[in-house]
Specification:
The complex is a heterodimer of chains A (about 450) and B (about 800).
Chain A: H1 4-18, E1 22-27, H2 32-35, H3 37-45, E2 49-54, E3 63-64, E4 67-68, E5 72-76, E6 80-82, H4 89-97, E7 101-105, H5 112-120, E8 123-125, E9 131-133, E10 150-152, H6 161-164, E11 173-175, E12 180-182, E13 189-194, E14 200-202, E15 214-215, E16 220-226, E17 232-236, H7 244-248, H8 265-276, E18 283-292, E19 303-304, E20 308-319, E21 322-325, E22 332-337, E23 339-345, E24 347-349, E25 352-358, E26 364-372, E27 380-389, H9 404-426, H10 434-444
Parallel strand pairs in A: 1-2, 1-5, 5-7, 7-17, 19-27
Antiparallel strand pairs in A: 3-4, 8-12, 9-14, 10-11, 13-16, 14-15, 16-17, 18-20, 20-21, 20-25, 22-23, 22-26, 24-25, 26-27
Helix pairs in contact in A: 4-5
Chain B: H1 2-30, H2 33-37, H3 46-60, H4 62-66, E1 69-70, E2 79-80, H5 88-102, H6 109-135, H7 138-150, H8 152-155, H9 165-186, H10 189-205, H11 209-225, H12 231-248, H13 257-260, H14 265-284, H15 289-317, H16 325-331, H17 335-339, H18 341-344, H19 354-361, H20 363-384, H21 391-416, H22 421-444, H23 461-474, H24 479-501, H25 507-525, H26 529-556, E3 565-568, E4 574-577, H27 579-590, E5 596-598, H28 604-611, E6 614-615, H29 624-635, H30 638-647, E7 652-656, H31 667-681, H32 706-710, H33 712-718, E8 734-735, E9 740-741, E10 752-757, E11 763-768, H34 794-806, E12 814-815
Parallel strand pairs in B: 5-6, 5-7
Antiparallel strand pairs in B: 1-2, 3-4, 7-11, 8-9, 10-11
Helix pairs in contact in B: 1-6, 1-7, 3-5, 3-28, 5-6, 6-7, 6-9, 6-22, 7-22, 9-10, 9-12, 10-12, 11-14, 11-21, 12-14, 14-15, 19-20, 20-21, 20-22, 20-23, 20-24, 20-25, 21-22, 22-26, 24-25, 27-28, 29-30, 29-31
Classes of the chains: A alpha+beta (about 450), B mainly alpha (about 800).
Subcellular location (chain B): Endoplasmic reticulum membrane
Membrane topology (chain B): Multi-pass membrane protein
GO molecular function (chain B): dolichyl-diphosphooligosaccharide-protein glycotransferase activity; metal ion binding
Chain lengths: ~450, ~800
């Protein structure tokens, strides 16, 4: 019964994936349809159902009768101070907690609502009016002179193919917007795109930057998060990052080391959107089985110590809307009782991962634990609790070879006692004097 | 003449049977207070496990029980119950249940468990009768049987519902000792085998069997040293030791201990010694004196030296376990406190106070030194008059040594640990029986023709023989030594009691000791019949008072189930507080079947027994480090505790809190032990001194340290406690147990949440929260405008947005105007 929640979760993901996903796209105005048409159309082409609204629309809602009415929320409206309708930062958090995925794209005119959403998810945007400035990596063509249009190199992008696609082939990426930083205690933060060491966040209009609150490579341009229920959230400091302009233009970095090329924004935006919409990096447990070697089902009661067991877990990955066998080779199994007693890398045979090992000579309540956490993948966690008990009193060896001398000695002792008793009771001393023998024999008779 | 004797024997037998039956009945009845007051319920802590185990055995059969691996205890370590339990208790009640069942008396196993201890108290009385009869006289036996039937020291562990090992073990102890005495007296292998069998039962019933396996060798050793070796001793001891050792090894929990631990080595040593002594005796008549001396001195020295060397070599090599900590704590009372706090933390392992000697033994405590003195005197007489060494008498005196050793060792152990009062009580009852019997004999003898009220008068046939011998003795033994030693012993005791308690009750002990002083001399000088009558009456009054006291103590002190609490309202009505069962029932009904409940180990058995949930630690304190881990969780702050609890898969945490009703046995009062035990294993993380106030006191009140105020135990105990008010003029959060207002009342829980609190707050259950789904920034470094405080915390946000949503769902949003960008 312990796997039931896992199955349910798996089932719910399955259902979710079988339909075209419903996406709510919020722009500052409905004009976002045009300014970000390339990005949005690419999503539509992938078979999703887009609903584009203005962020201040009074009819906005994410829930209806307690159910999600959208699977994903894209906010491409940097300046939202207060969302329209029932939407609010808290509502968005609830949406995430209910399994919805969120993409937030901000900008220098960031409104309080977005900043609050970020705070609710362990990130912080810089204040409104500020922008990430990099005097060494701005784009000469697109920049207005305040050096806020940044060209981002490959090395600043997270090395996780599932999130950003093939980073090696990616062209330089254009970015213009507000800085982002992950909270101190945010252990789940993914620094998808970080700023270079020369960047800082400040008001570009100010004469000079005074103590910028965010600076250097700590500054995030795009940050991501996969919450514990596997919902995904991406914060981008720039809505223009997804815009037609940036997607189409060529880069012309002031940095001579960066070659001018067509921007990688399109590829990166596509990859990120795929990740955030859970089109990539989604794995699930199909089935788990463990049994004694030579059997096929788990034992009726408990395992015994030092038995040979086989553990098999089937893992599937979602690829192009279909569940296919997972091909990862680095999934590990732990056999845990507070500490892991056995740790084995599972052998992958086309999605059937298995390990055979000998149970430790330790009794207790153990767990077969697969806790697979990889950047970009959903968290795969499976626990099977089993008891490992000592042998029954009848299961020990009856006769031990090394005890043969003792068996021999005890039996010889017994025999000796019997012999001795017989001798003692019936032995008569050899007669020395005939008369006495006669006497005793007379008595006997 | 023959018919007269037969009728007298018949009358005596009848009287004996009647007295014993009455003793059984009274002993049984006086143990039923708890049932009459409350209900037929298992008491306290350990009995709950015993009950659960018995239930399991009755349900699944003996072999399943023997191999029972309990995965619900000591999670995640588990416990092999079959191999870590003395199964005698379960088997006994299982057997009774089976017999009743086959006789078509269908009783629930719980009833059998509840009434087992009172039933066995009757058997104990009978065993005591036989033991005392062997040692002294049937009259003394009857006295002793009556004493043990109602003696509070024994009742304390055997009231109805107190379903514990001790309930049957005392019977086994007395019976084994009786059989040992019997086998020593007769020198027959049969009695020795019976003794071994009885010992086997004792081993299967109680860990206290170590007492008897050391006492019997001690007796044998004493006899050897006193030059009283005989072939009877050899036969009975060797057959007993061999059989007993093999039999005791059949109990899975004992296993190889009899050959591998130091506690059992004395018995083995004496066994070896006995062989040597036997050999000497055999050789003495067959070789010359010169050869004998060489053999004796040389052989013994070499063998003795070799034995010591071999022993230490075995201990060093790990083949024989050194003495355990519990053993050391018997000799050095401070040992446990320093080295094994888990042992010292148990209240019944504390040294005994003088008051409890009186409380548990009453008049018998004062009389037993007298009985002891009589025994010593007998031994002494015999030694002085060695020329009259009659074989039978010599044997009898050997027995006195046994009871002397029994009493003296039991007194010592009872002084070290309250719990061992239990082993003292039978010895005291035997000796007090002897004391009373002897005195009454002296005082009622002259009036034998007129009075035949007491059975004791007719029972002292053997006694007279001794007395005659003794009277001859007296001329050489200075009387003053006898009498002056006996009375001072009890005098000192009574004065001491008097001073300690200041209770007029103890004044009686003066009287008693003087009575016996007189009684001692009385046998020589002769006392007028008036004095005899008065003294006899006074003694009878004392005996009556003993009955009253025993009943009073049983009723008021030892008949509380401790699962159900009782108090009284201001107008005297009884108030039953059933918080424990309320909480356990809640757990049973409202939590997942495999939920794991963390609590201090005291409540482990109860949770398992009543709530049927998995526990981490319980009263079978076999794994100190696991307990220390729980102690560490309880004494750490919330986040550190959370890590430990996650590691251990804890779902619920249960604490006992008595601050609302003034229950002093709660977890805050035990908390220091948790800290100490945790410190023993994790000295880097937990330090006892951090939990004290600046002035070094243990307090949760005003001056409590920061560590104390932030530890999980404090938070769980006092969460929401600030809201309570005892009276109008009393500040919130007044702790009635400790009598002050607590140090910190605004307690916020982050990692756990309150799941249930019982009616009187006695039991509080908390649930471990899951980790938050997503991280939030608690202290924003960049302020968000429009917020009053520079720090955004979650609650402010919630408030604001609740306000927003109140404005209506269909509100229009606000968007910051886009700044005119130069190149937009």
């Amino acid at each position: 019964m312990r796997w039931l929640p896992t199955l349910l979760l798996v089932a719910s993901i399955g259902i979710q994936q079988s339909f075209a996903d419903r996406v709510l796209v919020l722009g500052e105005t409905a004009a976002v349809k045009d300014s970000h048409s390339v990005f949005l159309n690419s999503i539509k082409e992938r078979g999703h159902e887009l609903t584009v609204r203005a962020a201040d629309d009074a009819q906005l809602a994410l829930f209806k009768h307690g159910q999600l009415i959208f699977d994903h929320l894209f906010v491409l409206a940097p300046g939202v101070q207060v969302f329209g309708g029932s939407l609010s930062p808290v509502e968005i958090s609830k949406f995430v907690d209910a399994g919805g995925n969120v993409l937030i794209a901000a900008g220098s005119n960031i409104g309080d609502a977005l900043r609050e959403v970020a705070v609710e998810h362990g990130f912080e945007f810089d204040e409104a009016g500020t922008a990430v400035i990099d005097h060494h990596n701005y784009d000469q063509t697109l920049d207005a002179g305040d050096h806020t249009t940044i060209v981002v190199g490959k090395d600043q992008i997270i090395s996780a193919e599932l999130i950003v696609g093939n980073a090696a082939k990616l062209g330089p990426v254009l970015f213009r917007g507000v800085g982002l930083v992950s909270g101190k205690s945010n252990n789940l933060a993914l620094n998808i795109v970080k700023a270079s060491g020369t960047a800082f966040s400040s008001d570009p209009k100010a004469a000079r930057a005074v103590n910028p609150s965010i600076a250097g490579s700590r500054t995030l341009l795009i940050g991501g998060l996969q919450s514990r229920n596997n919902a995904r959230i991406v914060f981008s400091g720039s809505a223009e990052f997804f815009s037609n302009t940036f997607l189409a233009s060529k880069t012309n970095s002031v940095n001579p080391l960066v070659q001018g090329a067509s921007s990688g924004n399109a590829e990166l935006a596509s990859a990120i959107s795929k990740w955030v919409m859970k089109e990539s990096g989604v794995i699930r447990v199909k089935s788990v089985n463990h049994h004694k070697k030579g059997e096929t089902v788990p034992p009726a009661e408990d395992y015994f110590i030092t038995e040979d067991v086989v553990y098999t877990i089937e893992i599937e990955e979602l690829k192009n809307g279909k569940w296919v066998p997972f091909q990862g080779k680095d999934v590990q199994l732990e056999f845990v009782r507070i500490d892991p007693f056995v740790r084995a890398t599972l052998k992958n045979n086309n999605g059937r991962l298995s390990a055979a090992f000998k149970l430790p000579d330790v009794l207790g309540v153990f767990k077969f634990l697969v806790d697979y956490r990889r950047v970009g993948y959903t968290h795969l966690y499976d626990v099977q609790q089993v008891s490992v008990r000592p042998l029954w009193h009848t299961q020990y060896e009856r006769f031990i070879r090394s005890a043969y001398p003792y068996y021999a000695s005890s039996f010889s002792m017994m025999a000796g006692l019997v012999l001795f008793s017989i001798v003692y009771l019936y032995h008569k001393d050899t007669p020395i004097k005939g008369a006495k023998v006669l006497d005793s024999e007379k008595k006997k008779n | 003449m023959t018919s007269k004797t037969t009728s007298r024997v018949g009358a005596t037998t009848l009287l004996t049977i009647v007295v014993l039956a009455l003793a059984w009945l009274v002993g049984f009845a006086s143990r039923l207070f708890a049932i009459v007051r409350f209900e037929s319920i298992i008491h306290e802590f350990d009995p709950w496990f015993n009950y659960r185990a018995t239930h399991h055995m009755v349900q699944h059969g003996f072999y399943k029980f023997l191999n029972w691996f309990d995965e619900r205890a000591w999670y995640p370590l588990g416990r092999i119950v079959g191999g870590t339990v003395y199964p005698g208790l379960m088997v006994t009640s299982g057997l009774i249940h089976w017999i009743l069942d086959s006789l078509n008396f269908h009783v629930h196993i719980r009833e059998v468990c509840v009434f087992l201890a009172p039933t066995f108290s009757g058997l104990t009385a009978i065993a005591t009768y036989f033991l005392t009869k062997e040692l002294w006289s049937p009259g003394a036996g009857l006295f002793a049987a009556c004493f043990i039937a109602i003696s509070p020291g024994y009742t304390s562990r055997s009231v109805a519902g107190s379903y514990d090992n001790e309930g049957i073990a005392i019977f086994a102890l007395q019976f084994t000792y009786f059989l040992w005495v019997k086998s020593l007296k007769t020198g027959s292998i049969m009695w020795a085998s019976m003794c071994a069998l009885s010992y086997f039962y004792m081993v299967s019933a109680w860990g206290g069997y170590v007492f008897i396996i050391n006492l019997i060798p001690l007796h044998a050793l004493a006899l050897i040293i006193m030059g009283r070796y005989s072939s009877r001793l050899f036969v009975s001891y060797t057959s007993f030791y061999c059989l007993a050792t093999i039999l005791s090894m059949q109990v899975p929990f004992v296993g190889f201990q009899p050959v591998r631990t130091s506690e059992h080595m004395p018995a083995f040593g004496v066994f070896g010694l006995l062989q040597i002594v036997a050999l000497m005796h055999y050789a003495r008549n067959r070789i010359t004196r010169q050869q004998f001396m060489t053999l004796f001195v040389g052989g013994l020295t070499i063998l003795g030296g070799l034995a010591v060397v071999v022993y230490f070599a075995l201990v060093w090599g790990g083949y024989v376990a050194p003495f355990s900590g519990r053993f050391y704590s018997l000799w050095d009372t401070g040992y446990a406190k320093i080295h094994i706090p888990i042992i010292a933390s148990v209240s019944e392992h504390q040294p005994t106070t003088w008051v409890s000697f009186f409380f548990d033994l009453h008049i018998t405590a004062a009389v037993f030194p007298v009985g002891l003195w009589y025994c010593i005197k007998k031994v002494n007489d015999e030694r002085v008059f060695s020329e009259f060494r009659l074989r039978f008498e010599r044997q009898a005196n050997n027995l006195f040594i046994s009871v002397i050793l029994y009493a003296v060792s039991a007194v010592y152990f009872a002084g070290v640990m309250v719990r061992l009062m239990l082993t003292l009580t039978p010895a005291v009852c035997v000796l007090a029986g002897i004391g009373f019997s002897y005195t009454f004999e002296k005082y009622l003898k002259d009036e034998e023709t007129k009075e035949r009220s007491s059975s004791t008068s007719s029972t002292a046939k053997d006694e007279k023989l001794y007395d005659k011998a003794a009277k001859n003795v007296k001329s050489r033994v200075p009387d003053c030594v006898n009498s002056n030693v006996s009375s001072p012993v009890s005098c000192v005791l009574s004065v001491r009691l008097c001073v300690v308690d200041g209770n007029s009750h103890y004044a009686f002990f003066f009287c008693v000791s003087f009575m016996f002083h007189n009684a001692n001399e009385g046998e020589e000088t002769g006392v007028s019949s008036n004095v005899r009558t008065i003294i006899s009456i006074i003694l009878v009054i004392f005996l009556l008072m003993f009955v009253v006291h025993a009943t009073y103590v049983t009723s008021n002190a030892y008949s509380h189930p401790s699962v159900v609490l009782q108090s009284s309202t201001s107008n005297g009505d009884r108030l039953i507080m059933d918080d424990f069962r309320e909480a356990y029932h809640w757990l049973r009904e409202n939590t997942a079947d495999d939920a794991r409940v963390m609590s201090w180990w005291d409540y482990g058995y109860q949770i398992a027994g009543m709530a049927n949930r998995t526990t981490l630690v319980d009263n079978n304190t076999w794994n100190n480090s696991h307990i220390a881990l729980v102690g560490k969780a309880m004494s750490s702050n919330e986040s550190a505790a959370y890590e430990i609890m996650t590691e251990l898969d804890v779902d619920y945490i249960l604490v006992i809190f008595g601050g609302v009703i003034g229950y002093s046995g709660d977890d805050i009062n035990k908390f220091l032990w948790m800290v100490r035990i945790a410190q023993g294993e994790h000295p880097k993380d937990i330090r006892e001194e951090n939990y004290f106030t600046a002035s070094g006191e243990y307090s949760t009140g005003a001056g409590a340290s920061e560590t104390m105020l932030n530890c999980l135990m404090y938070k769980m105990s006092y969460y929401r406690f600030g809201e309570t008010r005892v009276g109008y003029n009393q500040a919130g959060g007044f702790d009635r147990t400790r009598g002050y207002v607590i140090g910190k009342t605004d307690i916020k829980l982050e990692y756990i949440e309150e799941a249930y609190t019982t009616e009187n707050w006695l039991v509080r259950i908390y649930k471990r929260k899951k980790l938050p789904n997503r991280p939030t920034v608690k202290e924003a470094t960049i302020p968000i405008k429009g917020k009053k405080a520079t720090q955004v915390n979650k609650q402010d946000l919630t408030l604001t947005f609740n306000f927003n949503s109140l404005q209506g769902k269909n509100k229009k949003g606000v968007i910051r105007p886009t700044p005119t960008s130069a190149k937009a």
